[in-house]
Amino acid sequence: MAPRHPAEPDALRGSIDLLILKALSLEPMHGWGIGLRIEAVSRGRLEVNQGSLYPALQRLEHRGDIESDWQNTENNRRARYYSITRQGRKVLGEEVEKWKRFAATMDMILES
Amino acid sequence: MSLLKGLKARARSIFAAGATEARMEEEFRFHVEMEARRLQLAGVPVAEAQRRALVAFGGMDHHREAMRDGRGARWLEDLAGDVRYALRAVRRSPGFAAAVAVTLGIGIGINGIIFGFVNSLLFRPLPARDPRQLVAMFVVDTRSGDIGELAYDDYRDYRDRSGAFAGLAGAMGVPLNLVASAGQGAAPAAADMVWGEMVTEDYFAVLDMRPALGRLFRPSDAPQGANPFAVLSYDSWQRRFHGDSSVVGRVVRINGTEFTITGVAPRGFRGMRTFSFWPEMWVPAGMHDVIQPGSGGVLNGRGRGWMLVFGRMRPGRSIAETQRDAAAFASQLAREYAATNANFSVMLIPAAAGYDHPGFVKPRVLMLASVMGIFAAVVTLLIICANLANMQLARAAARAREIAIRLSLGCSRARLTRQLVVESLVLAIPGALVAAFIVRLSPFLEQYMVPRLQFRVGLNAAPDYRVALFTALAGVLAVALFGLAPALRASRPDLVPALSSVIGEKRRGARQGGRLRGVLVVSQLAMSVILLVGGTLFVRSLFAARGADLGFDASDRLLMSVNLGLQNKDEQRGRRFYDDVLTRTRALPAVVSAAWAFPVPFDTYGRGLSLYVEGAHTRSKDGTIVIDGSWVSEDFVKAMGLRLQSGRDFTLTDSAGTPRVMVVSRSLATRLWPGKDPVGQRARLGGASGTEITVIGVVGDATFASVGTGAVARAYIPLRQRYRDWSTLVVHTRGDPAAVAPQVRSIVASLDPTLPTFGVMSMRDAVESGFSTSRMAASISGFFGVFALLIAAVGLYAVVAASVSDRTREIGVRMALGSTPSGVLRFIMWGGARLGAWGLAIGLAGAAGVAKSMGSLLFGLSPGDPVTFALVPLVLALVVLVATYLPARRAVKLDPVAALRSE
Fold first, then answer.
1. How many Å apart are CA B142 and CA B147, to the nearest integer?
2. Which of left, alpha, beta for B150 (phi over 0: left; psi -120 to 50: alpha)?
3. In the prediction, which pLDDT does B185 show?
């Protein structure tokens, strides 16, 4: 049996999910576009291994937070476009809330 | 909605694996191309852009694997791998696999059979439409709380006027004299007594059954006495008419009148009552006057009667609501017919799977035997599981190093556990097939377990889907028991010692596995001691019962029963018939003596008698004592081979018109008149104001039934003083009773050619069949005990053998340091003996408890039977000795040098 690859740490996995949902909450996008968007908004501070987006996308789709279908790009190339579902929006809202609370708590602890 | 989309996506990814893979590849390619194009636009040369895009994407294989893992395809692939691996393991050790298949199959199969019996009694619904809507109805005497059957006029009113039921039907069991030919070319029609039911014409309509053949009764068959129709039971159709479909329309004679068979009831329908005879046929209650002329109170009367009534509830009504409606109607009847119904209400009970009288106490023996059977079956399965767990542990221990290496290489515990569980499952599948085969044997087994009576009873334990489900569940549980625990244990070895054993350190992990296995063996031994004690007690009890003095002479005795009521003989003609048969039989050269008696020892039927005796202790309100009675002719003491202890036998002069007399058994005499001479004592029949009856003789106690005997109090009443139309001729013959049977039969036939005789057999055979159930119980429990012990012995052997191979090095050191072979033998065997001692101690404690609760099933021995409790430890000690000596001998034969070099 092939040895298994160690999974990403939970914190990072969670943050990738959140970043993808955030990116898709603006408009449907294909995988490359999502990567580009994350890089742009994080201004390069968050380095995401581009390929690891795809397992995350698959996971979110299985969970029902996003859905996907084939569409054509502006250059008339077939690409898989992802869009956020209603449930995904709810999850995003909750997760953002959680992050904010977490960040605030950390702030409070570190500032005191 | 979104969740559903997610599930759909997930399902697609598993079931359309090819398309999903293609989509993944296309997405990856698209991504890298887009990235490369972006870099090119930023001025990077083509080749360099391509390279950088790939780098930024990261290890493509890594991502592919991550996605495959994520969609569960991996899970399936691994499973296939596990199954292949397990099959390889099975092929490597076919003996082990066969042992698993056989033991597990027997263990699960036995449980399936036992459940099948319970199922057919309690769970299997009647083959009627919507059986949940069926309820049985009884009347309740509100003063005494007594529960009884309905009278016909009340039944009719409930059916027609109460509005509480969608339909209401009634039945009454009757013996019938059936004269029927099995078919064209078959032997000429012979008279036979069969048990059937007289039923109201809407009986089958309320059940709403589909006939197996022909048609059933219809409510339109109503007019009384004008519908001589009969419906056969499926069972009777198969056995008596060989499943001949031309049976519909055939004319048979029932109690002398011609009836036409209109149809056959559906398969599996054996009347409404659970603990009762299986009716062979149903006849309309409207034909009552033809079937039982002169017996009143059947098709009329109020208050308490003879009708077993059941009904179908109105659609949508619950049993509580129906009960309320029926009770309200009962109050109305109480007002309308105050003289008969003033104190009667009704009681409904569910009848979906058949029913019994709510006051019917299921025979204690039967209940206890069922509990014992279930206990033995479950314990046996547990022993088998413990044994298989043990073997799996041994195999796992042998692979400890392999497992440790795989764990250290990053194989997850869950993954490893799963592989071991899959291995157990693969091993269990042949076991399940064996179990399925064994469960199918249950109807065959039932034949030997159900007592042989003069009518059909039984469980009809044909396996159905419930049995299949239960058996499958037992199998899954068994696999979980024997597969999961060792798998969890084995996948958690201490990595360091297991690995370091590579360089010759002691294996601590294996030792710990050894302890768990020790516990398993001890519990196996303990459980098998319990079963062995139970089995030995049953077998010894059977021998005690067989060896016991029956109190009568069973050799050279012929029995033959008649029911004169079937021929509508009145008392005068009946008496003459009895006398004629006796005179002619006694005149046969091969006959020593003959008498009429009913019931006889080991009879299917029994009769009670209530006596009032001044000053005798009783708990009943009216001061009477209810005892067993037999109604007998003169000479019964000689004919039955009883022992007259004082007084005299009946004579021709003890007849109607002379003062009532009786003969009592020794224990009845002791109970009623302790310390006095019973001859000459008086009692009253039926109550304080009843007819006086005088004791004229005392006979020794006779055993009339195979279980629950003890000292039986019985009174013998002269048939000449109290006529009974049902009796058994007991003939003491010279030589083989079977040789005399045709002569006696022809005497009866010459007096009344259409009178059926039944129960024609030797007394010896009657006793044998009386013991058949006990014999079966003894063989089954003996089988359980020996089987369990064998399995436990194998478990012990395996543990000792494993400890020898685990400690090869230690043994080598001991021998190198001068330990003698017998010292090593002692050292190894001591380990096994300790396990044996623990198992025995725990087992004996448990067995003492079980034996105590078995007490009332045992004949002639105490639950603490010293022979049993000495024999079982002895046998166990012997088995432990053999099971430890064989592997220990291997240790002695080890070459010390080779042993030191091992590992």
1. 9
2. beta
3. 57
SS3 (DSSP) at B307? strand
Give pLDDT, residue B486.
67
- SS3 for B753? coil
At B511 the pLDDT is: 53
pLDDT in tens, B297-314: 678 888 888 889 999 999
Alpha-carbon distance of B564 to B568, in angstroms, equals 7
In a domain, B550, yes or no: no
Q: What is the pTM of this model?
A: 0.70
Q: Which residue from B753, B787, B781 is spatially nearest to B868, judged by alpha carbons? A: B781
Domain that holds residue A104: 11-111
Q: What is the pLDDT of residue B513?
A: 59
| Cβ–Cβ under 8 Å, residues B345 and B327 | yes
Sequence letter at residue B640: M
Structure tokens, B101: 């298949």
CA distances from B292 to B255, B256, B347, B395, B739 (A): 8, 11, 29, 73, 35
CB B781 within 8 A of CB B791: no
Please report, for the domain that includes residue A106, its CATH number.
1.10.10.10
Q: Which residues of B, range 396-415, sit inside 8 Å of A by Cβ?
A: 406, 409-412, 415
A3 contacts in chain B (CB < 8 Å): 409-411
Range of the domain at B705: 557-766
Is B12 buried (19+), middle (13-18) or exposed (0-12) by CB count in 10 A? middle
Mean pLDDT, residues B124-133: 89
Nearest CA in chain B to A80: B27
Whether B4 has its CB under 8 Å from any CB of chain A: the answer is yes
What is the tally of structural domains in chain B? 4
Least confident range from A40-44, B429-433, B575-579, B755-759: namely A40-44
B347: confidence class by pLDDT, cuts 50, 70, 90: very high
Q: State the ipTM, two decimals.
A: 0.85
User: What does the DSSP 8-state code read for residue B483?
Assistant: I
Beta bridge partners of B870: none
Could A4 and B30 be called an inter-chain contact, meaning their C-beta atoms sit closer than 8 Å? no
pLDDT at B699 over 90: yes
Residue A57 lies in a domain: yes
Contact predicate B591/B740, CB 8 Å: yes
Do B493 and B439 have their domain in common?
A: yes
Residue B162: the pLDDT is: 92
pLDDT of the residue at B507: 47
Band (B365; pLDDT cuts 50, 70, 90) = low
Chain B residues in contact with A87 (beta carbon < 8 A): 1-3
Same domain assignment for residues B288 and B394: no
Chains A, B: CB pairs < 8 Å: 103
Rounded CA-CA distance B116/B136 in Å is: 24
pLDDT in tens, B468-480: 888 888 888 887 7
